[in-house]
Each structure stands twice: as C-alpha cells, then as structure tokens.
UniProtKB/TrEMBL annotation:
This is NLR family CARD domain-containing protein 4. It comes from Stichopus japonicus (Sea cucumber).
Length: 280
C-alpha cells in the first residue's frame, strides 16, 4: 500500500520502487542483532513476557520488527521512534545504517533531529486542540443522573467529602484509616496522595465520573488553581470505551482525534520525549 508522501520528501536518486516498506522490514531484521533486540525492548519498556520471547526466538530481529510495527514504533511513513532509540543506546553506526536502508527502500527522507522536533511540536499542538474539542463535548453535556438535564459539569459539580487511605487495614477489626482531603484537587496535588496511580472509589452516584469531567473542564479552561494547569497533554478514556480495544493509539484515535488524522500515532508516541508533563 502506498503512503501519502510529499514529493519534496522523495529522494531523487532512489533506485528502488518507492515505498517498499516490506523489503525495508526484512533488511532491518537482518541488521538487528540479538543483543540489539533485547536492548531495544528494554528502551521501549516491553513487558517481561515479550522480552523473554525475544530472547528465545529463532529470529529475534524479525520478531522485534513485528512488535515495533504493531506498537507503531515503525510504520510506512516514519521510523523516528526507532532512530531515537538507537541514538539513546549510542548505536550511532546502526542508526545511520537503518536510516539509509529506510530511505533506499521507501524513498522517504528521514528528517533531521531539529526538523523532527519541530514536526512533533506542531502535531502535539494539534493533538491538544483536538483533545480540548473532544473533552468540551463531554463536560459540556454532563448528566450525573438519568432524571437530570444535560449541562456543563462546572454548573453541576459540588465538592463533597473526599477521604484518602492514610493507613491500610488488614481486617474488619482493623479497617483502613481514612483522613479527609480539603478539595478534589488534592487528589492530584497533595503530598498525602503522592503516587503515579490514583484510584477513586465510591458507590454509584457518588460523583466519581463527575470529578473526572471537572478535571477535564479545569484543564480545557486552564484553571489557574488546578494542579492540571501545567499539564501539556491530558488523556481521558473511560473503561467502557476500551472493550475490545488492544492499543492505546486505537483508543485515542477512536475517541479523541478525528479518524482521518494519520499523524496521531507518531505525535503521541514521541510527545513523552519532548513533553515534561503528560497525564493519562
């Protein structure tokens, strides 16, 4: 399948048919040694089961190529993620060889580092714009109860009693020790709740989803009192949206950005490298 490529990005001296991405993948698999594969899997934070599979595979390079393509780390239009990983591993010789192979097999020039960062910044800004549009629709039509009329969450949300587990209990005789938080913002900002993963629990109708929508409102409106005010990218997905969805990229594409935005996968997977603040 031919990619949509700008003519100015095609090398004029390419001898092979443009966009032979499949032949590039074959060549790439031959370049990557077993050691390279395991190092790449570590850089990409692959789970232990996949790393073990790669370590025992008869053709680790070929299997690694399949995993990278599946995760969007290489595709017909870009291998920037792979090139950055090879540089991070100080494998500059292999990075140069892989870059040359990609250009020869596909006819697409790999941009310079500065150009790549500029492209990612532009696409990251587009992603943020589309996120705000999607989230505004969600928090603007909040309906906590079936009997209520739809309205902006900002007009519906009411601060209630919020408690955090100060000490985990081990039985009914020694239950969890709960202490109160002054505001819903403290769920994200208080040293008492410092953690990379926050779980909000409560009975149906207690406002868990409403708090989530209020966070969206605060981020979209750049509320100066919100702990989200400096967050560049906010990803909000509901669990019911993820049924049967195997990829985070697919979920984002389905529920946040327009379906015709083919650049989204690249922009998202590279954003963490150039963005200091990303919340999901």
């Amino acid at each position: 399948m031919a990619a949509n490529v700008n003519p100015v990005d095609i090398k004029p001296d390419v001898k092979k048919t443009v966009n032979h991405f499949d032949s590039f993948k074959v060549a790439l698999a031959k370049v990557l040694t077993d050691k390279n594969v395991i190092e790449l899997a570590t850089v990409f934070n692959y789970p232990p089961a996949i790393k073990e599979e790669l370590g025992t595979a008869a053709s680790a390079g070929r299997l690694m190529v399949l995993h990278m393509e599946e995760r969007g780390q290489i595709d017909q239009t870009s291998i920037l993620t792979l090139l950055c990983a090879l540089k991070k591993m100080d494998l500059f010789g292999i990075e140069k060889r892989v870059r040359k192979l990609y250009e020869e097999h596909t006819g697409i020039l790999c941009p310079s580092d500065d150009h790549s960062k500029a492209q990612i910044e532009e696409k990251k800004n587009k992603f943020t714009k589309y996120s705000r549009i999607a989230y505004q629709k969600q928090y603007g039509t909040a309906k906590p109860f079936p009997s209520m009329n739809e309205g902006s969450v900002h007009n519906i949300f009411v601060e209630g009693g919020i408690y955090y587990v100060a000490q985990k209990g081990d039985s009914k005789q020694n239950p969890d020790v709960l202490e109160s938080l002054e505001s819903y913002n403290e769920i994200l900002s208080s040293p008492k709740t410092k953690s990379k993963r926050k779980i909000i629990e409560g009975e149906p109708g207690y406002g868990k989803s409403t708090i989530g929508l209020q966070y969206l409102h605060d981020w979209c409106t750049k509320n100066p009192t919100s702990p989200l005010k400096d967050v560049k990218i906010l990803i909000y997905l509901q669990l019911r949206q993820l049924v049967g969805v195997k990829s985070i990229y697919t979920a984002i594409k389905n529920f946040i950005v327009p379906k015709d935005e083919t650049w989204m996968k690249l922009a998202f997977r590279k954003s963490s490298e150039y963005t200091k603040s990303l919340l999901s």
